[in-house]
Amino acid sequence: QDVAGAQQGPGYGLWVEPSMRRVMPIDLPSSDPPEREISLPAARNEYESAQIVLLPGEDGLQNVRLEMPELRGPDGATIAAENLQWRQVGYVWIEEQWPRPDVRNYAPTWWPDPLMPVDRFDVDAGWSQPVWVTAYVPPGTPPGGYEGTIRVLADGHAPREVPISVRVIDFEIPVAGNARNAFALHRGYLEWAYGKENVTGELRRAYGDYLLKHRINPDDITRAEPPEVEDIAYYAERGLTTYNLINFVEPRGDRPAKIRSELDAYTPEMMEGIQTEVDPVVDELRERDLLDGAYVYSFDERKEDFYPTMREFFGMVHERWGLPTFTTALVPLDPEVLADLNIDWICPHARRYRFEDAERCREAGFEVWSYTCCGPRYPFTNILADDPLIASRIIGWQMYQQKLDGFLFWGVNIWSRAGNEGTIELTGDPRLDWNITTGGEQWAALHGDGLLLYPLEDGPMGCIRLENVRDGFEDYEYLHALGERRGVDAVRGLCEPVTKSLSDFTKDPDVVLARRQALAAALAGN
């Protein structure tokens, strides 16, 4: 109990953990003595988080809630309490954990992932329960230190106080960020969860807004029909940087998604039908000055037998619409091959990415992205639920260190796993009856692939992995701003304590925070 910070009698354990550490139900503090204060450096227009962990005694805790303070800073400046948010960390069941040497094997067990927007909650006896606390620094906030005290309330216990300080850095992150990305928000899976008739513009934009607040484009590489122009106009005002116009596939029908079609589908009739459907959308987007960032994605992970079709259909995109083409096709990182196939943006899997080859392509005018999905696993970074949580944040650093033009993730809402139906109702129990495991003999230990959001009845619920992705993309903005001053190659070297390649990265949150502090000092001219 002393290690956990618990007290005898009416007390309970309370300590603070960084956002990059996944706290399991049986975990105790990661430091000795335990941290009891939250200290967050943040730029303007940035979000930063930490976790308050509660460990009750044999009677558990009832009716826990947190009161967020106003933070007071220099010369009367403040950060309003409404810019501080808390959410209870929820759990999903993981039966079989993917074995890796850098993560302790806990499974089968309840695994922390969803972030539950509740007003209050109970905690079972002996269960280490994290509460995710996020501070947002509004644009225009003066730099300096801001302080306040969070109050933790629980029935039958005296209020507990957790000091919180936010050191505002004299730097502002742009609304439309520089860490370009394509995380697929599948309309078909929205329809799967909510019913096709309920996927209105209001619901789509609720999901789009949530992603944009996490520096992620509400995009869909599998889009079998053009997006609504009004959605693009709405998102463009809120930070949209890139979006797919169409995926060359057959209509998805009642399926949630149609990612690929076979070769025999690519007929003259198919091309004519696509042109008829897309031409007026392109015309309207151009007329409204909304084509910036538009691209056409197709031929997902296709091989050499698709090259002639790729050349023809992507050539049509260039001639008819004047848009860049984008693919994860298994194509060599060779400028001559890319030019021959009319590919503008090539996206090799992380395991196939080679920096020197990518640089030759960039020097020739092509973009080179990368992506993860069900793999790769150890020692690479990924966003899967049982990978090191810090890996989700490191992706932003790797994008800069490897000069990636963007990062792709094939789904944020692929929900149709065994046992799942419709939307999730929060019942007061943090252990969700919701499956994030792909399943089947091959994928029995694949958890959270294509799933970074959970469907509540009134909109999206996020997760601790998505929060860390956002933090990494915000770290990218520090690197990008400093690179504008010193040059990209000089700043790439500053990434090395954090990451040296797509498969070599630190597991220590303190290393990330220390390097980030050094970047902030450099931006401030210190």
Q: What can you see in these coordinates?
A:
It is a single chain. With 526 residues, this protein is α/β, with parallel strands linked by helices. 25% of the residues lie in helices and 25% in strands. It is built from eleven helices and 27 strands. It has helices spanning 187-194, 201-212, 229-236, 268-287, 307-321, 335-340, 355-363, 389-401, 464-486, 488-492, 509-523; strands at residues 13-18, 38-44, 46-55, 61-67, 71-72, 78-79, 84-94, 109-116, 121-123, 129-137, 144-153, 160-172, 181-184, 218-219, 243-244, 294-297, 325-327, 345-346, 367-368, 370-372, 407-409, 437-439, 443-447, 454-456, 459-461, 499-501, 504-505. The chain has a five-stranded antiparallel sheet with strand order 1-3-10-7-8, covered by helices on one side. A five-stranded mixed sheet has the order 2-12-11-4-9. α8 runs parallel beside α9 (464-486) and α9 runs parallel beside α11. The chain starts with 12 loop residues before the first strand and ends with a helix. The model is unreliable at 1-9 (pLDDT under 50).
How far apart lie the N and C ends? Answer: 43 Å
Spatially, the strands of the biggest sheet line up as: 1-3-10-7-8
- Name the helicity range: 25-40%
Low-pLDDT windows of residues = 1-9
Q: With helices defined by DSSP (H or I, 4 residues minimum), what is the helix count?
A: 11
* Shape label: globular
Gyration radius (Cα, Å) is 24 Å
- Mean residue pLDDT: 96
| Class from secondary-structure proportions | alpha/beta
**Percentage of residues in strands:** 25-35%
Compute the number of strand runs: 27
Multimeric state of these chains?
Answer: single chain
Q: Major sheet, described briefly?
A: 5 strands, antiparallel
